[in-house]
Each structure stands twice: as C-alpha cells, then as structure tokens.
Specification:
It comes from Arundinibacter roseus. Belongs to the ABC transporter superfamily. Pfam families: ABC_tran (PF00005). The chain has 225 residues and is an alpha/beta fold. Helix content is 33%, strand content 26%. It has a domain at 9-96 and 164-224: 3-Layer(aba) Sandwich (Rossmann fold), CATH 3.40.50. It has seven helices and ten strands. A hairpin with a 2-residue loop joins strand 9 and strand 10 (221-224). The longest helix has 16 residues, at 177-192. It is globular and about 45 Å long. Bound molecules: adenosine-5'-triphosphate. Adenosine-5'-triphosphate binds at residues 18-19, 21, 23, 41, 43-49, 217.
C-alpha cells in the first residue's frame, strides 16, 4: 500500500439521511492518520447515522466522503467488504458468536477475509489478543468472559486486518466506570501504535479524563466542540 499523508476520513458537503429523512446536513471534517476523535451529541442527534455512513451501511447520496482510500460517493456495493477491512468497527453490544470460543470467533473473521495459512492465523490471533490484554483466554467461550473482556475480544476482532481507523459506537455503553476506563486504555494503546480512532460516546468521564478532539452532532449539523 502506498503511504501518503491523506486523511483517513474526509467528508465534504456530505448530507446524511436515514431513508428520505435528513439527519445531518453539510458535514465537513477530516480525521488524520493516528488521530483520536470523540463524537458526541444527544440521543437521536445522528452519531450512529454518521458512523454508519462512514462504513457504508448508510449510502452517501450528496456530497463526498473518502474513508481509508475509498470514495463513498462512488463506491460499488462489491467494494464495501474491502472498505470494511480497512476500518475496524466496534459496537456497544458485543456481537460475538456465542457458540464459539474467542479463538474461533477470531479465526472466523480471518478466514472470511481470505487468510488461509494456519500458522499465520494463529500468530495474528495471538498478536491481537496480546494487544488488548487478553493473551491467556483464547479457548474461553464468550459466556465465560466478563463484559469488559468480551469488549476486548470485539476490539481484537476489529484489529485483525490492521485497520487504518477504528470506528466505535458507544463501546463502553454497557460497562461500569472502572471497566470503561480499562477499555479506554485499550483504545489509547491501539491509537498510540498508529491507528486512528473515532469513538461515539455519552460517557462524560471519558471526555474529561482523556482530552482529545471532539466532534459534536447538534441541530442537524456536525461541529468541532
Ligand atoms: N433505521 C432508521 N430508519 C429511520 N430513521 C432512523 C433509523 N435509525 C435512526 N433513525 C433516526 O435518525 C435520527 C438519528 O439517529 P441516530 O441513531 O443516528 O442518533 P444517535 O445520535 O446515534 O442516537 P443515540 O445516542 O441514541 O444512539 C433519529 O431521529 C432516529 O430516529
């Protein structure tokens, strides 16, 4: 891959819709490589809609957006899986396959994204589990893990294909304050190693304790806060 200084995310005059309902108008911002950005705003202000647009779950109809090298206003449906390999996605509800171990959850994603060699798969799984501080748990089933540990697995899963950016929608929404802080540390470690992070959150303790750039959805627009 060519290394350039172009932003990981660049939106210009983008309008965000849910179906025909306008949610956010004239959205303009960029996120540079390795940046950490919070996305805040009241319930219903459009945070999830904006994030969904970035990973092409919602279709960009007007304006332009480039994410991890893909032009969202021109992207073909067949390219969407390749876009999503360059971004990692983390949700509030952990969405692990409950009938498979940690290792099997991660293997499933690697195989689905073209990894074939057993040794490579094993090495990558061990790397991402170390990265999220879960090196000793590959054989455990999701129900044997705490909420915080499950969220670590989800973050590990999102990191498997070395994304340029992690997009996280309320990743600490189901966790108590102490565990939220631990998960925040995982994101910070990943960010320090070079991956950009865009995190939607309602958690004002995180904002207070971890000063970073803040984008706010308010009254149908997105502005720097
Ligand atoms: N699938 C959908 N179809 C139609 N409208 C939707 C859909 N999902 C969300 N909306 C509407 O879009 C608006 C923005 O919702 P969105 O979920 O993006 O907000 P949010 O800021 O992420 O809220 P929260 O903090 O509660 O997650 C709301 O008015 C919501 O009702």
């Amino acid at each position: 891959m060519t290394i350039t200084n172009e932003p990981v995310v660049l939106l210009e005059r983008a309008d965000i819709y849910q179906g025909t309902k306008p949610i956010l108008a004239d959205v303009n911002f960029h996120i540079d490589k390795g940046e950490f950005v919070f996305l805040i705003g009241r319930t219903g202000s459009g945070k999830s809609s904006l994030l969904k647009t970035l990973y092409a779950d919602l279709w960009l109809q007007t304006g332009s957006a480039r994410v991890a090298g893909y032009e969202l206003h021109k992207i073909k449906r067949s390219d969407v899986p390749f876009l999503r390999r360059r971004i990692g996605i983390v949700f509030q509800d952990f969405q692990l396959l409950t009938d498979r171990s940690v290792e099997e959850n991660l293997t499933f994603v690697l195989k689905a994204t073209g990894w074939k060699e057993k040794a490579d798969i094993a090495r990558r799984i061990s790397e991402v589990l170390m990265q999220v501080g879960l090196g000793t748990s590959p054989k455990k089933m999701p129900h044997q893990l705490s909420g915080g540990e499950q969220q670590r697995v989800v973050i590990a899963r999102a990191m498997l294909n070395e994304p340029q950016i992690l997009i996280a929608d309320e990743p600490t929404g189901n966790l108590d304050p102490e565990v939220s802080e631990q998960i925040m540390q995982v994101f910070k470690t990943i960010n320090t190693a070079g991956t950009a992070i865009l995190m939607a959150t309602h958690n004002y303790d995180l904002l207070k304790n971890h000063p970073a750039r803040i984008l706010k959805c308010e009254n149908g627009v997105v502005h720097e806060s």
